[in-house]
Amino acid sequence: MSKIKSFVKNKTKSVKSKLFLIMTITSMMIIVFLILANTFMIESYYEYSKKDQLLKTYNIINQFFSSNNITQSDIELELEKIAINNNFSIIITDENNISIYTSNKDYKQSIPNISKSKIVYNKDNIHILELKDLKNDITFLMLVGKLTSNGDSVYIRMPLSSITENVKISNHFLYIIGLITIIISGVVVLIISRRFTKPISELSNIANKMSNLDFSQKYRIKDTDDEIDNLGKSINKMSDKLEDTIIELQKNNIELEKNIEKKSKIDDMRKQFISDVSHELKTPISLIQGYAEGLIENVNTDEENRKFYADVILDEANRMDNMVKDLLELTKLEYGGRVFHNTFFNVIELINEELRKYTVKIKENNIKIKFNTEVPIFVYADETFIEQVVNNYLSNAIKNILPINNEKYIEIKIKLLNNNKVRISVFNTGKNINKENLNKIWNRFYKEDISRNRENGGTGIGLSLVKAIMENYKNEYGVINKKNGVEFYFELNITK
Fold this sequence. Notes:
Beta-Lactamase, six-stranded antiparallel β-sheet
């Protein structure tokens, strides 16, 4: 029951329903008014119009007899026309009650019954009487008056129809017409209301979508230049302005979020940097402090030992310098503080150049290099950062290389992939990395990192730099344990 009430309530809220109800009620009120007027007023109006008709006829006859230009025969002809056209019975008598003119000989017999009639009009010696013929059940109106020209008497009689019966018939007809009118007006109102309410509903839907920040729908202008069309144009303008404003606000909001995020990153970067520096510089600072104190206190008097102390201090100072530089570089890469200047360059040439830098160490460690690719392969990246990646992989391979089955070599491979990328791998013979450490070796200053060895001068963040660079490019990188060694790899784009 509540659902039905809710449905009815929602339907009656619509403009279409309200317009239909208003038009229907208005039509019904007009029909009811016509029926009431027909019932209670038509009889009086009918009698009034008949009395007026009698008075007008009397005035015409009076004018005929007052005119000197009309003959007696003309008067009689005109009287006959009036009697026939209006269904009147006309008698004119002189002062001796002798008939001068009569349109109906039987009518003269009813004149003596005037005394039994009802007077309905009495003015200026003119009387209008209501007579009833009980025998024939007919009611008449009779005008009795004097002609102003000669004093002759005029009797004009007209029958009154049964107005009551006519009113019943008229009301019945009005009922039928009213029902037809209501049905037709209802259909017309539905059609018209649909025409008017359709654009209103469209505007309402647009407004609802705008309230949900959806500005995709626009009102279709029909060039009717009416109020609804103008309203549609205004809503379209408002929608465009709101959309532009919200887009601008969203841009500003995104920019603000970026600034807040950037500020947060800078703050995190500062905290991380301070934490890393304060933690990792303890050992070299302690060494420098100890050997410096030894020099000051002349712990070793011979020149060779003092030189050894000085060399340790210099090495640790250089190590701190390199570590701080690498740490700053890593921090900037991780927090988006570096701009990559990407260009096309020959990666084969870059690898050969890095191998030349390590020529001395390669010879000292009796390492065999397997890299025979001579065909140029161009990649799209920042050459400086890719040089760091290759350098770190080569350095890491040289530090951790061991002979396996009397073989000691580093092998560099380049493989073209199907996704417009190239994979570069650096393999060295040696021990495998523990499975649980395969992901940990990419973390900065990882203590169990086999590539981190103070004697080799590593800073402990080389692989972390590789990770940061590759993640900026969103390219794959990783490490794979092989049967007789370890392979590190990374991927580069060969197209923009």
